[in-house]
Amino acid sequence: xxxxxxxxxxxxxxxxxxxxxxxxxxxxxxxxxxxxxxxxxxxxxxxxxxxxxxxxxxxxxxxxxxxxxxxxxxxxxxxxxxxxxxxxxxxxxxxxxxxxxxxxxxxxxxxxxxxxxxxxxxxxxxxxxxxxxxxxxxxxxxxxxxxxxxxxxxxxxxxxxxxxxxxxxxxxxxxxxxxxxxxxxxxxxxxxxxxxxxxxxxxxxxxxxxxxxxxxxxxxxxxxxxxxxxxxxxxxxxxxxxxxxxxxxxxxxxxxxxxxxxxxxxxxxxxxxxxxxxxxxxxxxxxxxxxxxxxxxxxxxxxxxxxxxxxxxxxxxxxxxxxxxxxxxxxx
Amino acid sequence: xxxxxxxxxxxxxxxxxxxxxxxxxxxxxxxxxxxxxxxxxxxxxxxxxxxxxxxxxxxxxxxxxxxxxxxxxxxxxxxxxxxxxxxxxxxxxxxxxxxxxxxxxxxxxxxxxxxxxxxxxxxxxxxxxxxxxxxxxxxxxxxxxxxxxxxxxxxxxxxxxxxxxxxxxxxxxxxxxxxxxxxxxxxxxxxxxxxxxxxxxxxxxxxxxxxxxxxxxxxxxxxxxxxxxxxxxxxxxxxxxxxxxxxxxxxxxxxxxxxxxxxxxxxxxxxxxxxxxxxxxxxxxx
Lengths: 332, 286
What we know:
heterodimer; A: mainly alpha; two-stranded antiparallel ribbon; B: mainly alpha; two-stranded antiparallel sheet; 11 helices; 2 strands; about 0% strand
């Protein structure tokens, strides 16, 4: 092979790692180029959403299941951290992981019975869970602060560095997002991930080839709940204030839209979907009036025309075109 | 004590009848298309909205307004199926269910733009003079709800057992492939099932909004509880939907009366999760 071919082969072999390195480098440099706190606030929100969407995408895209209630886990994580640090005075970092473990247990308790069933039961059960959590957050005001929210959550800190300004939060949040991204990228290339992909393709076939489908579904459900809970804790420490409205059922549908736009089963797409939907209101002046309309429209259009998601759908289209072009040229 | 109980039972039956209507709508679509139709939620809102416009913008008397509102919702439902769902030409349930979620969000957006975000009040069908029944005082609206629900169920039963279209729909529900083999056009069946789901949801909306007040997302909670009722009774079973609806309504009003009214709305979902835990097929599921 020539040197050029060798290089191309090396690039295509390590494309995932290279992409991840490039992205990490871009993220490290980003605050030097862009120091507007408002913009950084937006990208930080993208990072938080991306963590939830990554987990949810594993569940929807890889395991082929439906959850319309991930805002519940997000909310449990946020309120869990808030209550643990403010009411009980626990240190933020341990409480964050403690809360994530507890939320994982909740997901396990819900997941084991419900994941025996097919799609729409799960959609409804998760929606129901979201509704229950939202109502409890609203009504149990001596613990959660009720409709007015929960304020005064301390910022996270490592040694002397306190994460309370946009730039340090940028590094903290995107650091977490990158770790989750790498985790997911590696997971889907592992035996477990291949099993999940088989499960999404055809459950019966996957089971007959030795994938323990029920336990795989439950595991990935718990994993996605834990990620959502971590994102919730980060959200709470980042804004130092949480209110129940952030964690309603409409947040859950927004998360689903992010997954669908990014592409069901596409890890990189999850980050793109989260970014796209988070930035959308910034690009559209009239967004407030037509928010539902735009969100629903995007979901419907993507599902109708590019059911694999924007990125995967478009790259697939380009790939087909290129293959056709190559064939025509080879013939000529 | 006894009158209290009776009072709770009456209000439970009233709420339950509404859930039953919505649950039936879910079942019809699920039986013929095999999907959960999340748009059902907005059919409920639309029913109330059309009733509001028919009464106040057009100035119609109550009964024609009610009929018009229900017919319009059925029409909207048919348009949604024809324009929104059928072009997708997908049999992937994940895609179809998300599609109904998306269409439901769009419809809610349109409702918000057309009728605004403010809460509106809809007058009851007949003036609010409580009737005394066995010592419990019952609003005439509750009697309307119970009466019209029975009428709707009777019409549905007649439709599914006596008309050729209804028999076709049952054929599709019991075996889609066999139904296709004998030449039943699936498009017409889908359209009809959406129209029925729309009419049922619309009727529920028209009947319940004088009690709950009217708002662009009033249907969301009602619709979700209707769905919970459908699962409670056994998803896809018509008697199950009615039983599930009434059972859920009674549970809700009894728990609001004897336990706590703040968590009244949670009861439905806790019960739902418990049912899924213990008997996922519901009471009357196959």
